[in-house]
Amino acid sequence: MLLRRLTDFILASRLRAMAVAFATSFIPVPGGSVGVLVASLVTLRKGAFEGSLVFCAALAASLASYVFYRNSANAWMLWQVTWIGCALGLLTWLLVLILRRTSSWAIVTELSGLCGILVILGLHLAFPGIQGWWVEQLTAWFHKSTSMIGHFLPDMGSAAMQPEAVSAAWIASFSRYATGFLVTSFLVNLLLQVMIARAWEAAVFTRGLLRQELHAFRADRVAGLLFIIVLVAALMGSMLALDMLPVLLMVFCLAGFCLVHALFALLRRGWVALLFFYAGVVVFFPFSLAIVAIAGLFDVWLDFRGKRILKKR
After folding, report:
1. What string of DSSP letters covers 29-41?
2. Contact 89, 82 (CB under 8 A)
3. Cα end-to-end span (Å), the chain
């Protein structure tokens, strides 16, 4: 199998793994993620020290790319992309290391959510007027987009400019969650990379490992209490709580999806039930995500998974 041969090649020696991570990190778009993925695989199989060497190789390639193109017209944007990619890569590697030591997706997800909440708290303390800044940025982006549409498609551009009050209301509403959505998107990217690394390892060495770990994912009661507190504060109009809400929704959405998969796995034809479930998620999106998150929250205290298994026995 090709994947097995590639894995054996990477894990055969330290220099091979570092060379693969270094070389793939030069690929323009997905390269940095591939390099971090290689470092994550090595960490899962060989430990923190070997994985840190491979990660440093991937990081060195990203920094070298910036050095080569630092005099280009887009040097500032390239620098931003470089340091954000390095930060995400480091966080991904740390989460992989935690997963290796604990084999618990609850700990990995909740720690990433805690980091996201701390980042949002720090941004609100450092920039008290961050919501107004988002309104300015989103308004400028909206006008720029509509002007570009109007330049290429005059009819559509004039139609897009008509509901000015609607767009202003949408911008004012979204600005309350914008920081939280941005942080959540980064966290989702982190967790996806960790999940891909674990899936790679499981596919080659231990089939079913990732599925078993995700089926056991159940959020902690402390996280559940924090979710309730933030939800109540958000309903009361707290700007900080509104920004934190997307991060906690992500944590409990993942817990809810894992719960659904674990329960349907007990059925004889659970895959059919999963098809209908995901069809409902798509049809009723985004309200379906809130329902899934609430299911993950209730599972903290009711433990649907454990009761269902005991009943089947």
Report:
1. TTHHHHHHHHHHH
2. no
3. 38
Residue with the two structure tokens 């000015």: 164
Closest CA to 222 of 81, 75, 311, 117: 117
Residue 145's Cα: distance from chain center in Å? 27
Rounded-to-10 torsion of CA 170, 176, 182, 184: -110
Amino acid present at 269? R
- Residue 263 gets the label, from left (phi > 0), alpha (psi -120 to 50) or beta, of alpha
Rounded to whole angstroms, how far apart are CA atoms 2 and 44? 20
By residue count, the chain amounts to: 313
Distance separating alpha carbons of residues 87 and 313, to the nearest angstrom: 46
285 by DSSP, 3-state: which? coil
Are 183 and 130 in contact by the 8 Å Cβ rule? The answer is no
Q: CA 158 to CA 148: how far, in whole Å?
A: 11
293-307 residues labelled b (16+ CB within 10 A) or e (exposed): bbbbbebbeeebbee
Angle between helix 221-235 and helix 239-264 axes, rounded to 10 deg: 130
Tens of each residue's pLDDT in the chain, 313 residues: 788 888 888 888 888 888 888 887 766 555 457 888 888 888 888 888 888 888 888 888 777 765 665 555 555 566 566 667 777 888 888 999 999 988 889 899 999 999 999 999 998 888 887 877 887 777 777 767 666 655 555 554 444 444 555 566 777 777 788 888 889 998 998 899 899 989 988 888 888 888 888 888 888 889 999 999 999 998 888 888 888 999 999 999 999 999 888 888 887 777 888 888 888 888 888 888 889 999 999 988 887 776 554 444 4
Cα distances (angstroms) measured from residue 289 to each of 107, 114, 174, 294: 21, 20, 18, 9
Report the candidate in 41, 40, 29, 85 with the shortest Cα–Cα distance to residue 59: 85
